[in-house]
Design a protein that fits this description.
The complex is a heterodimer.
Chain A: E1 8-17, E2 20-30, E3 35-39, H1 46-54, E4 61-66, E5 69-70, H2 75-81, E6 82-85, H3 97-107, H4 112-125, H5 141-153, E7 159-163, H6 171-184, E8 189-193, H7 197-203, E9 206-211, E10 214-219, H8 221-228, E11 231-239, H9 242-249, E12 257-261, E13 270-277, H10 283-292, E14 297-304, H11 308-330, H12 340-347
Parallel strand pairs in A: 3-8, 3-9, 6-7, 7-8
Antiparallel strand pairs in A: 1-2, 1-4, 4-5, 9-10, 11-13, 11-14, 12-13
Chain B: H1 4-17, H2 19-45, H3 52-58, H4 61-72, H5 77-82, H6 84-89, H7 95-127, H8 137-163, H9 167-186, H10 188-191, H11 200-209, H12 211-219, H13 225-250
Helix pairs in contact in B: 1-7, 2-3, 2-7, 4-7, 4-8, 4-9, 7-8, 7-13, 8-9, 8-12, 8-13, 9-11
The chains are: A alpha/beta, B mainly alpha.
């Protein structure tokens, strides 16, 4: 059976700016029709990686293939297959929305007979029809973002690369863009970078977390949770005292934390959040213990899935710790006649 | 070169819809009109044998010093500073198409501005006495030279703009290059007087690079092909360098 070529294939990609390794040997793949979220703190190398994918920036070493075509060998051909929305979404301020999309359609070699129809279609999809005759420079940030997204999807590219597409949009527009991206699933491969983590979680099939130019985690949000989150969180509404709760939970887990215990409401119920080390479902045991306790009454209980934000924080924190350890190991060892205290401080 | 005309059309359209294009054109024609009037007044007080058109062409370098940087400094530097170069260079256009479209758009505007100054000569010959001899050849020669030398000056401007992301720096570099070419090229033999045994090639080179002398020749009806080759080859060289810079910096194909 013929093996399907991935839409994006990155192998040991390096990009060095002077002494700084902006991208340091990252490898990942995006399958056809898949939506992938690219996460990372500022300066992690997301935008540099995206620019290398588009052929705008040359990599120092490594291989990038778009639809099986190496970017370094044939940048011209891959530019026909991608739709790119850069960071900060630069647009010509003096043109009108329709004029700009017309120009882009011409440059992107969209057949003349389909051009007007396709422009109308993307304007409709991005809710730009009522702003089509407005000058881009006078549009609000939300409208400008939508013009950038309309341009990225205009020529039916096989791969869409969007750097922070939802930044500056109001919640209505965010939902609209989320739906728009979701509709592309299966038809086009999409890679999105964003700081709005719930957006990524709702939209993407897979997530790649990058920090310090290295990939620190990749997989589905659930895979990442299993890798980086080492505790289970339960939220419950409980009538009773915190001391009683501690007492009843003791048989279930040796180490647990009550992260939150709110003031009782009119009915005497407080909201409590409990963190139990390890990833395992102990909901039934919890119910049993709480039911057996004479001092406690439970109104509701649910296991809370760790948000992607927690995964992101755990992954980046872990990579920083590794980086710190590497740096400490790289430090030259102090002379043997130095006092022991100096060695301890250098290692720390 | 399949996107060249699309890009050129877009560049010309941007010029057409930009109010600063019309303001710049108005100010240029106003200043050139005053200069032409001042030449006519001078001729009225001190009659001379040569045509006022000839004097007009001899001072053409002064507007060039300001016009070329103002026309070209935006071209690449503005795209780079606003980031639109990224959207432009991530579609299937080549650096050659981008540079040539920018150059041609500036050239069309430059040529149009000078073409409008042709009306000064028309008005002048319409109002002089009927017995005066109208000689069109110095005017044709003068405008031919402006058209040919313009390719080099504008390519210097595009080259300056391709080097930087700051319009101001692009303008200063462009002014320096154009001023350097005209001022140094026209006075090379004088500048080389400090050289005790001045080699013969300095004198020969100064003959080839003397912009003022070239204009004098063209406006006297002498079409010197050496000058044409110099301007066209140098302009091609600077456009080529601009393409290389854009390809290197923006990864153009």
């Amino acid at each position: 059976m013929e093996k399907q070529v991935p839409a994006i294939e990155v192998e040991k990609l390096h990009k060095r700016f002077g002494k700084l390794d902006a991208v340091n040997g990252i490898s990942f793949q995006v399958a056809k029709g898949q939506i992938v979220g690219f996460l990372g703190p500022n300066g992690a190398g997301k935008s540099t990686t995206m620019r290398i994918l588009t052929g705008y920036t040359r990599a120092t070493s490594g291989i990038v293939r778009i639809c099986g075509i190496p970017v370094a060998c044939n940048p011209h051909e891959i530019k026909r297959r991608i739709g790119y929305m850069p960071e900060n979404n630069p647009l010509p301020n003096e043109l009108r929305v329709r004029e700009y999309l017309k120009l882009r359609a011409r440059i992107k070699e969209l057949p003349m007979r389909h051009r007007a129809k396709r422009i109308d279609e993307v304007m409709e999809r991005c809710d730009l029809t009522r702003a089509q005759d407005r000058i881009i420079g006078k549009l609000s940030k939300g409208f400008r973002q939508r013009v950038g997204i309309a341009d990225a999807i205009l020529a039916h590219p096989e791969v869409i690369i969007m750097d922070e597409p939802t930044i500056g949009l109001d919640p209505h527009q965010v939902i609209m863009i989320r739906d728009l991206i979701a509709r592309l699933r299966g038809k086009m491969s999409v890679i999105i970078s964003s700081h709005i983590l719930p957006e990524i979680e709702m939209t993407c099939d897979r997530v790649v977390i990058i920090n310090g130019g290295k990939i620190v985690g990749q997989g589905t949000p659930q895979d990442l949770r299993e890798t980086f989150i080492d505790s289970t969180i339960y939220e419950m509404e409980i009538n009773g005292k915190i001391a009683s709760l501690r007492e009843s939970l003791a048989p279930i887990a040796k180490e647990f934390e009550i992260n939150q215990f709110s003031e009782a409401d009119n009915c005497g119920f407080s909201k409590a959040t409990i963190r139990i080390p390890g990833v395992h479902d102990c909901g039934e045991d919890l119910f049993r213990c709480l039911a057996n306790s004479t001092d406690l009454r439970v109104r509701s209980m649910r296991m809370r899935q760790a948000p992607l934000e927690d995964v992101f924080l755990a992954a980046t924190r872990r990579s920083w710790e590794t980086l710190d350890t590497d740096l400490a190991n790289d430090d030259p060892k102090p002379d043997s006649d130095e006092p022991a205290e100096t060695e301890i401080s250098a290692a720390s | 070169m399949r996107h060249f005309f699309t890009l050129l059309r877009a560049e010309l359209w941007r010029l057409l819809i930009n109010p600063s294009t019309y303001i710049a054109a108005f100010l240029f024609l106003l200043i050139m009109g005053f200069v032409f009037q001042w030449i006519l007044l001078d001729y009225a007080n001190n009659p001379k044998e040569e045509s006022p058109s000839l004097t007009f062409f001899q001072i053409f370098v002064f507007p060039i010093f300001f016009m070329v940087p103002l026309l070209t400094m935006r071209s690449i530097a503005e795209e780079r500073s606003s980031g639109t170069i990224e959207t432009l260079m991530t579609v299937a256009v080549t650096a050659t198409e981008v540079i040539l479209s920018k150059f041609c758009a500036s050239y069309v505007y430059y040529a149009l501005l000078w073409a409008f100054t042709g009306s000064f000569h028309y008005l002048f010959f319409s109002f002089v006495q009927e017995d005066s001899i109208f000689d069109p050849y110095p005017i044709i020669g003068g405008y031919t030279f402006i058209a040919i030398s313009g390719t080099l000056f504008l390519s210097l401007g595009i080259f300056s703009s391709a080097m930087t992301r700051s319009q101001l720096v692009a303008g200063i570099v462009s002014f320096t290059l154009v001023f350097g070419f005209i001022a140094i090229g026209s006075n090379l033999d004088e500048l080389a007087t400090l050289w005790i045994s001045q080699p013969i090639w300095v004198e020969q080179l100064s003959e080839h690079t003397n912009v003022i002398q070239h204009m004098r020749d063209f406006s006297s009806g002498i079409i010197d092909t050496r000058a044409i080759v110099l301007y066209l080859s140098c302009s091609l060289a600077f456009l080529f360098l601009s393409i290389l810079i854009l390809e290197y910096r923006e990864g153009g194909a």
